[in-house]
Amino acid sequence: MAHLHCILEDLKQIINECASGNIKAQEQLYRTFAPKMFGICLRYAKDRTEAEDNLHEGFIKVYSSIKSFRHEGSFEGWMRKIMVNVSLEKFRKQQTMYPVEDMVLYADSHATDDVLAEISAQELLVLIQQLPPRYRMVFNLYVMEGMNHEEISREMNISVGTSKSNLSRSRDILKDKVKKLYGEAGKNNNTA
Amino acid sequence: MSERTNIDKTIREKFEDFSVEPPVHLWGEISGELAAGKRRKRIAAFGWIAAAAVVVIAFLAGWLINDHSKQVLPSMVEQPKVQENNQNQTESQPQNQKSVSQNQEQPVIAKSNVQTGRSESETHKAARTFVVKNVDVNTETESEVITTSKREEWNVEYLATKTAEFDQENQPLLVTQIQGKQEEKRGISAHDEVLIVGNIQKLKQENKPEHGWIVGAHLSPGYAAHTSSYSASYSGNMSTNSEGGVRNVGGGVSVQYKTGKKLRIESGVYYAQNSQSAGSSNGLFNMSPSYDFLSGNAEYSGNDLVYANTVELKREGMIMNSTAGVVNLNQTPQGAELSAKTDGRDLNTATLITNGEFTQQFDFIEIPMYLRYRVVDGKFGIDLMGGLNAGLVVGNNVFIQSDYGKQNVGTTESISTLNLSGTVGMGVSYSMGTHFSLSLEPRMSYYLNSINTNPDVSYKPYRLGLFTGIYYQF
């Protein structure tokens, strides 16, 4: 307990020094949180390059607005929100450039969730990145951030129905991809 | 439903402590941007300090010049020599003069070497000094003449008449007029009369308040254009369309402080718009092989304006080298066509073609510090003015005006928030009584720095404006 208190005090000190522009403290903060935040950015991006861009932009926003952090909640949660918001802003801009037609409800693929238990996070990440941008965004906001469809529809400027259908479709796509991946892997193993 | 919940839960748990080490170079880029941000803040701070220094220097300059003018303007004309043979006449008319003792408060004495044309021997004996003091040109009854010798002859009645005449005309009497009436003036020489009128005029001017405030409201229709230059690499990726300035309306409020009769310091807050438009007729496509695919396309024929430029496709939009800098297009203009380049050099570039006119618009709030010099002071006044403005960019937009209406399609990158411009102008004013006046003032403002901080672009807007306004003086 005392150890945790020390860590929190250290973090508070680092945050305060970051707020006053101390570059060493900024680097220390980056080293501490960048891997976790990069993991989040990767889930929202279509590839590693986009995730790097988002992480870069997200940390610049963290440093520029760190003075407004009141030490009342989780700092990691606060940073996480910034990273998600950066991804959302990018999505909104892309949406105006490349509008996507609303998708109708797709038939359920009837896949079970057993296959998901076997797949690693890294493999799952690759599959999530392969989702169409809007599916990926809805999936992340609903499953990972715990937002409901009304909140998602507001954030993404889409209808609640679209959000629901996108989520359902993204689940199905993921399950199908997992099945194919493991099916093909099984076949390869058999032939080897 | 439970199956879906399980899937979500499984995936969430997999990513609970998921972390990936970002590439090493990323911190270098972030720290570089943080350092650049600090530099920008420092530069902005220097800009403000420079603007403040300009204000202080202009104020001090006005103050010093005003001090100098104070020493010169109040000097009065002196008549050192009066004919001796006027003594008897002076003594015979005691009722017409008001004698004031020599220890009168604040006697105004200045020396001048006025040549009277009389012999030295005549004038030396009766050398006297006279001063016209506190002549209230608005109330004739309080005209007052001070004499220091009984031998000098004065006609106060005539002096009062002359003062009234001066008031009516509000202008100094001409020497020739005075000379023409010389015979009627019962012993006052032409030279004396000139001196009297000169004194009255100076006193009248002296009675006007030297210091004071003038506030004004202005509306300024104008024409905005620019000068620009680019590096070779930048211009190589930019199509040159026919360009032109844009007419617009600005305005604001001003405050002037009169530091003297001639000089004023002016500041205030003005809104100004600087923009440039680009568009070309179909002739463009005959000249550039890049647009050969458009020949014969009915949509781009005729006299309609067409804008065409090379764009680079990015994940988050398109960027395009333009006149005022790199434009970040956050949406494709309605009805625009994107054509991929087929030369294979860069697959990320394309040609953007759209009907209509492309406009880059920058909105400025300008805080000026001007010096004004009053060339003519009267019912009609003429001012010369010049100075510096701190120009704050408060709006940065890119528009396409086409059949679909006016569409905001993005912003210009690297636009500096704080800029410096110089202004010169000449104003004509018409006084409408004691307090109010109207003015008409052509001015030209030119930005002294490139408002785009991109080293490949130099973009300096200028504006010709006709400032119309109303002033209130107190």
Q: Which term fits the overall shape of chain B? A: elongated
Global structural class of chain A: mainly alpha
Task: Please give the alpha-carbon distance between the first and last residues of chain B.
Answer: 79 Å
Sheet with most strands of chain B: 8 strands, antiparallel, barrel
Strand order of the largest sheet of chain B: 4-5-6-12-13-15-16-17
Share of residues in strands of chain A: under 5%
Gross morphology of chain A is globular
Low-confidence stretches of chain B: 69-78, 80-84, 87-152, 171-176, 280-302
How confident is the prediction overall: mean pLDDT of chain B?
A: 71
Q: Share of helix among residues of chain B?
A: 25-40%
Q: How would a textbook summarize the main sheet of chain A? A: none
* Greatest interface: A-B, 42 and 33 residues
How many helices of chain B does DSSP assign? 9
Question: How big a fraction of the residues of chain B is strand?
Answer: 35-45%
Q: What is the average per-residue confidence, as pLDDT of chain A, rounded to a whole number?
A: 82
Number of helices of chain A: 9
Q: Would you mind describing this structure in some detail?
A:
The complex is a heterodimer of chains A (192) and B (474). Chain A is built from nine helices and no strands. Chain A has helices at residues 2-19, 23-44, 48-65, 75-97, 114-118, 121-129, 133-144, 149-156, 160-191. Chain A is globular, with a radius of gyration of 20 Å. The termini of chain A are far apart. Chain B has 474 residues and is an alpha+beta fold. Chain B is built from nine helices and 17 strands. Chain B has an eight-stranded antiparallel barrel. In chain B, strands 1-2-3 form a three-stranded antiparallel sheet. In chain B, helix 5 (156-169) crosses helix 7. The longest helix of chain B has 48 residues, at 25-72. Chain B starts with a helix and ends with a strand. Mean pLDDT of chain B is 71; it is low at 69-78, 80-84, 87-152, 171-176 and 280-302. Classes of the chains: A mainly alpha (192), B alpha+beta (474). The A-B interface holds A 21, 23, 26-27, 30-31, 34-36, 38-39, 42-43, 50, 52-53, 55-56, 59-60, 63-64, 90, 93-94, 96-97, 112-113, 116-117, 119-121, 124-125, 142-144, 171, 174-175 and B 3-4, 6-8, 10-12, 14-15, 18-23, 26-27, 29-31, 33-35, 37-38, 315-318, 330-332.
